[in-house]
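Deliverable D2.4 — example input (structure tokens):
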């Protein structure tokens, strides 16, 4: 890891408070030192902004911010000065208006990850660029039947997405259930990672780290290092967990407690299901239901092997388990709650006619599109070109996509606007429909999905959600018409 260059720090608007506090020399001296912030602060959640009278109007200001991580003042980038940004909460059928006022020194934009909204105009339009000092008014109108669930927002300006997320730009979006589920409490857990030097300045990854996808040295939950939360025995909690890391996979476990999966991305399961662990690729979300037993527990991310860059390039970061959060359960036991009512039946596209079939191959070949040290990140042999439309689909049709990965590392495919029903990953043939908006394609593996291009027309993107790969070109353009 090298310290972030002065030019890049300038671009994020980070030269100022942080660099000065470090005596101006921070950027030069920080070479090998890394910050290991102290864990153990109390669990907190970002500020919640909720809709009223059918709409939610927010002002989001991405810009340089000084925040305390562990016991260190750090210079990051954040929305409205807080890391993560505010949680946005609204209902199906409502409208979200967001004024994005860019206080960074480089272009940015806003993407509402997982929301089923129009990709056109001032909607969830990935092609918008908001210059430094300028602002843009976004409007997202959720259809009345929009799936309730956990979503999130982050910048999507091609070329700088990984860097802007790694600097601290992300926040949660909650689409409320029509009726509150019977739980003692609900929590939002935005999991991210960050790399800081001893002076509390951001550090940039080396070229091989970018090729593998950068993993920050410190993993945060709502901006804190291993926060501690407390609860009473028997309480039932609903945790909305977002993997906002640019490249890190989270293999979630809580030794000693029963993990129950309630929802994945924007889709509730027919009923809560006991799971030994849950894997979240970058961009994925999970909602967990926990009925807490007395004692002390840790939510951890167990090691996950997401492959390598190939024989020549070596393997990715070898990390042990990472503790995300401690849970302290003690006190008066609380009474039992009524069972969780089932969600409306999920649509199953396996019973519907398929209008088209496509194949997408993710590869990291050497080739004419070489990047960094000679690796090209492509989908069907092509690198992203905003001016080219790679796939045209018929609005209202259902398609079957075969996703293959001819590279030695995993790539999580994300499609904007329309969720995907996963119908085959290895020998999995799920009895109940599984819907996700990020689907992991294992190294050398293959996955099949079905997509219904309902409700909206327009151009949008699909890409690898290892954001360095996306920035290096592993993204395509799709148009529904
Ligand atoms: Cu979460 Cu296209 O991104
Ligand atoms: Cu997205
Ligand atoms: Cu990738």
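Example output (designed residues):
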């Amino acid at each position: 890891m090298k310290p972030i260059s002065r030019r890049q720090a300038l671009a994020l608007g980070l030269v100022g408070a942080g660099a000065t506090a470090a005596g101006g020399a921070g950027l030069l001296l920080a070479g090998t030192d890394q910050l290991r912030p102290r864990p153990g602060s109390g669990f907190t959640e970002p500020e919640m902004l909720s809709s009223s009278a059918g709409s939610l109007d927010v002002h989001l200001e991405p810009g340089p911010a000084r925040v305390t991580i562990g016991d260190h003042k750090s210079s990051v980038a954040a929305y409205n000065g807080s890391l993560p940004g505010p949680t946005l909460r609204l209902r199906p059928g409502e409208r979200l208006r967001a004024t994005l006022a860019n206080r960074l020194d480089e272009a940015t934009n806003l993407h509402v990850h997982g929301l089923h909204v129009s990709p056109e105009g001032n909607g969830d339009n990935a092609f918008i660029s908001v210059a430094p000092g300028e602002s843009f008014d976004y409007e997202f109108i959720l259809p009345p039947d929009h799936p309730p669930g956990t979503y999130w927002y982050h910048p999507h300006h091609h070329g700088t997405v990984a860097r802007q997320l790694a600097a601290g730009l992300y926040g949660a979006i909650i689409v409320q259930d029509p009726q509150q589920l019977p739980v003692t409490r609900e929590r939002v857990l935005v999991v991210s990672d960050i790399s800081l030097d001893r002076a509390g300045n951001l550090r940039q990854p080396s070229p091989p780290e970018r090729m593998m996808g950068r993993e920050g040295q410190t993993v945060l939950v709502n901006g804190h290092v291993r926060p501690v939360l407390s609860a009473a025995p028997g309480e039932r909690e609903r945790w909305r967990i977002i993997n906002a890391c640019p490249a890190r996979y989270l293999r979630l476990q809580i030794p000693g407690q029963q993990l129950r999966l309630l929802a994945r991305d924007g889709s509730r399961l027919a009923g809560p299901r006991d799971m030994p662990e849950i894997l979240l690729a970058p961009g994925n979300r999970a909602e967990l239901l926990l009925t807490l037993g007395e004692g002390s527990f840790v939510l951890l991310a167990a090691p996950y092997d997401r492959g390598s860059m190939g024989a020549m390039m070596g393997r990715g970061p070898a990390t042990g388990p990472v503790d995300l959060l401690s849970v302290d359960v003690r006190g008066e036991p609380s009474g039992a709650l009524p069972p969780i009512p089932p969600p409306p039946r999920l649509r199953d596209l396996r019973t519907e006619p398929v209008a088209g079939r496509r194949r997408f191959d993710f590869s990291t070949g050497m080739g004419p599109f070489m990047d960094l040290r000679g690796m090209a990140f492509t989908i069907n042999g092509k690198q992203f070109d905003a001016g080219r439309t790679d796939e045209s689909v018929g609005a209202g049709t259902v398609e079957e996509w075969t996703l293959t990965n001819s590279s030695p590392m995993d790539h999580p495919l994300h499609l904007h606007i329309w969720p995907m029903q996963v119908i085959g990953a290895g020998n999995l043939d799920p009895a109940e429909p599984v819907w996700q908006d990020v689907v992991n394609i294992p190294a050398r593996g293959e996955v099949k999905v079905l997509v219904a291009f309902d409700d909206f027309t327009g151009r949008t993107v699909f890409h690898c959600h290892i954001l360095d790969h996306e920035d290096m070109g592993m993204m395509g353009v799709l148009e529904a018409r």
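The longest helix spans residues 161-167.
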